[in-house]
Amino acid sequence: MDVTSVDEVLMCADPRSWRPGDSWLAGGTVIYSYGTDITRGAPTRLLDITGAGWAPLAWTPDGDLEIAATCRIAELRALADDPLPGGIPRAQLPGLDVIPPACDSFVASWKIWNVSTVGGNVATALPAGPMISLLTAWGATALILRPDGRRRRAAVADLVVGPARTRLGYGELIRSFLVPAEALRQRHAFRRLSLTERGRSAALLIGRRTSDRSLRLSVTASVFRPFVLDLHADHGQAGRRRADRPTLADAAAWRTAIDAAAAGTGGWYDDIHGDPAWRRLMTHRLGDEILAELLPGATGVDGARGRVTGDLRMERTSA
Ligand SMILES: Cc1cc2nc3c(=O)[nH]c(=O)nc-3n(C[C@H](O)[C@H](O)[C@H](O)COP(=O)(O)OP(=O)(O)OC[C@H]3O[C@@H](n4cnc5c(N)ncnc54)[C@H](O)[C@@H]3O)c2cc1C
After folding, report:
1. Which end of the chain has fewer CB atoms within 10 angstroms, the N or the C?
2. Ligand 1 near 116 CB (within 6 A)
3. What is the set of domains in the chain, with CATH numbers?
C-alpha cells in the first residue's frame, strides 16, 4: 500500500538524524499494510534501517544470544534447526525449542517471515506479537539507541505498555535484544490458543523452569501488555519479605495473581479475536497446563496436564 503522507525515504539507522514526522522502517509489513505508522501517526519521512549491516544473530563469549532488531523472523526460525557455533550440543539449549511455535504464532505465511523483523514486532506492540511473548519469556533486554548518541537497556516485558504503545521515546531506535544464556539452558513449555483456524493469538503463555521447585510464567495476547509471574512450589519462603516472595505455584494463587495483574491494566484484552471472559478462562487453563508440565507433582494441578495449543478447528459436516 502507498503511504501517502511520506515525502522522503532514506537509508538511515542513526537516531541523531531523527526529526519530527520520522518513522523507522524495517520490514514494512505493518507500515505498508496499514498505510501509516500505527504507533506514532502518519509519517512524512521513513528511515529505512535494513541497510545498517547488523549481523542478525550473534553469540557473546558468555553464551548470551544477541538478536539484531533487523533479524528477520525466517532467520530466527532457522536458528532452532541450524548447528550451533563451537559445536555446542543443541540439547544444551532447550530454550531454543520455543522459537518454532512462537514463529508459527504469526497470522502470516513464510512470505511475511522473510521480510518482517523481530524489532518491528516489538516496536509495534500488538498484544498478539509473538516476538514480544518469546523475548519476554526468555527475560531478554533491548539495547536502545538514543538521538543524543547515548544508549540504554530495557527489559522487553517493560518496554511494551499497551496495544501499539511502548516506552520508546522520541527518535529512539531498538538496536538489538540480548537473551541470557541461563534462560536458553532452561526447559520451557509453550501454549497458545486462537479462536479461529490460522487466527490471531487470543492467549499465549510460555513457562520457563527456573529450578526444580520454581518457574517463570509469561502471559501475553490475552492481556494488554506482557506479564511475568515468578511461581514457587514451596509455601513460606523463609527469610524473605512478603513483598519479595514469589507467588505460590498452585492454581488458586497464580490465577489470583494474574487476575489482579490484568485488572490493574484495564482487564482482559477485548477484540474480534476473543471475548475477555473467554480469554481469562483460557489463560487459566493454559497456565495450569504449563505448571503441570514443568513442575509435575509439585503444584496440585497435575490433572491439567495436556496440550491445548494451536487453533480451534471448525468441523463442518454435510448433514
Ligand atoms: C499477513 C500479516 C499477518 C501478520 N500477523 C501478525 C501477528 O500475528 N502478530 C503480530 O504481532 N503482527 C502481525 N503482523 C504485523 C507484522 O508483520 C509484524 O508485527 C512484524 O514483525 C513487524 O515487523 P516489520 O519489520 O515489518 O515492522 P515495520 O512495518 O517496518 O515497522 C513497524 C513499526 O515498528 C517500528 N520499528 C521497526 N523497527 C524498529 C526498531 N528497530 N526500533 C524502533 N522502532 C522500530 C516502525 O517505525 C513502525 O512503527 C502481520 C502482518 C501481516 C501483513
Report:
1. C
2. yes
3. 8-48 (no CATH), 57-183 (3.30.465.10), 187-311 (3.30.390)
